[in-house]
Amino acid sequence: MTKTTSAPAPVLGTRALNRATLERQLLLRRSPSTAAAAVRHLVGLQAQNVRPPYYALAARLDGFTPEALSELMADREVVRIVTLRSTIHTHTADGCLTLRPLVQPARDRELAAFRTGLTGVDLDRLAALVRELVEDEPRTMAQLRAALGAEWPDADPQSLAVAARCRLPLVQVTPRGLWGRSGQVALTTAEHWLGRPAGPAPEPETVVLRYLAAFGPASVKDMQTWAGLTRLREAFERLRSRLVTFRAEDGTELFDLPDAPRPDPDTPAPPRFLPEFDNLLLSHADRTRIVPPAHRGRHWQGNQAYRTLLVDGFLAGVWKLDGQALVVEPFDPLTRRARGEVVEEAGRMLAVMHPGTSYDIRFGTVRA
C-alpha cells in the first residue's frame, strides 16, 4: 500500500512577500477607491497623531484630497479610537463598533497592569459614571481624572483614566482629527457619537480574513502582532481548508486567501512617502518584507517614529517638512534614476497635501 504525503508548501521569498503586501496595501499602484472604502479595506489607519491617516491615504489613492477624509470624520462616518495594539486608529463607523469589542481582551490585560493604582475602585461603577459624564458632554482626560479623583481620592489619577479608556469605547470627537483644524482631545462613547449600539465581538475568523486581505500572506504571529491579541491559532486552524499556505524562507508557515493577488517579485514598486506609524511597518511579527535587516530600527528614535520613504518597495530612508523644504534623508546613496523618481513622487505628494504652497525638495545627509 502506497503512503501518500502532501506536497510541501511553496516558499515565498522576501521580494514576493513585499510585492504581495504592497499590492494589498494599495502601494504598488494607486487605487481609484474612495477614502471610506480604503479605510475599510485597510482595517483602519494608525492615527497616533492627527495627520498620519491623511498622508497614508495620499500615498495609496488616486485623486485623494485631505478634505475627503476630513469630511468623513465631520460626518461621523469615520472616527478616532483606541483599538489595535492599544493605539489610536482611524476606523469606519462599522469598523469601530466591531473591532473595539474584538480587542477588549487586550484592554482587560492593559487594565490589569494598573490595578495597584485602582485599589478600592468599583470598575463597574467607574464605567457607569464615565458613561454618564461623557454622554452628557464630551470630556477631556483631565476632566475625567478630576471627576473620578473626587469619587476615589485615594486612587491613582492616571490609573483611573486608563480604566475609563479600557472599560468603555471612547472616541475622540471633532474638531480633533479634522484637516486644517485644531482641537484638544475630548471623548464620548462610540455608541453615543455614532447613534447606534455596538454589536457583539465578531468571530475571530472574519477578522482573520480581513487581515489577510490587507496584510497577507501572513503568519499567526503576524496577525497577533497587528491586533495586539494572543491565541489566534485556533481561528486560523478553523479556516485552514479555506486558505492556502506557504512558507517563508525561514520556514514560518504563512496563510493567505486563495484568490488574493501575489504579484511577480520583479513587479516595479514606485517610491512612496509614508507617515510616521504607518501600519505597513507595524503589522507583522517579521517585518523584513518591508524593513531590510540593515535598516531595522533606523526609522525610530526612542518613542519617536519618523516619516518613512519606500524605494523599490522597501524602507530606504526618512523624510520631513522643514520650513519650506521637504528634506529626504536616504539610508544608502540612491541611483540617479531612483533620485529622480523620489523627486517626482515628492512633488506629487506635496501637490496633494499642500496645494498652492511652494516647497524645495532637498536630499539631506545620508543617515548613519
Note down, in words, how this protein is organized.
By secondary structure, this protein is α+β, with helices and mostly antiparallel strands. It contains 14 helices and 15 strands. It has a five-stranded antiparallel beta sheet. A five-stranded mixed beta sheet has the order 9-12-13-14-15. A three-stranded mixed beta sheet has the order 1-7-8. About 40% of the residues are buried.
Strand and helix map with partners:
Layout: E1 11-12, H1 14-24, H2 35-41, E2 45-46, H3 52-58, H4 66-74, E3 78-82, E4 88-92, H5 93-102, H6 104-112, H7 123-136, H8 141-151, H9 157-167, E5 170-172, E6 187-189, H10 190-194, H11 204-215, H12 220-227, H13 233-239, E7 244-248, E8 253-256, E9 272-274, E10 300-301, E11 304-305, E12 307-311, E13 314-322, E14 325-330, H14 336-353, E15 360-363
Parallel strand pairs: 1-7, 14-15
Antiparallel strand pairs: 2-4, 3-4, 3-5, 5-6, 7-8, 9-12, 10-11, 12-13, 13-14
Runs with pLDDT <50, length 5+? none
Distance between the termini: 62 Å
Assembly state (oligomeric): single chain
| DSSP strand count | 15
Helix-strand sequence: EHHEHHEEHHHHHEEHHHHEEEEEEEEHE
Strand content: 15-25%
Question: Quick check: average pLDDT?
Answer: 95
**Sequence of strands across the biggest β-sheet:** 2-4-3-5-6
Helical segment count: 14
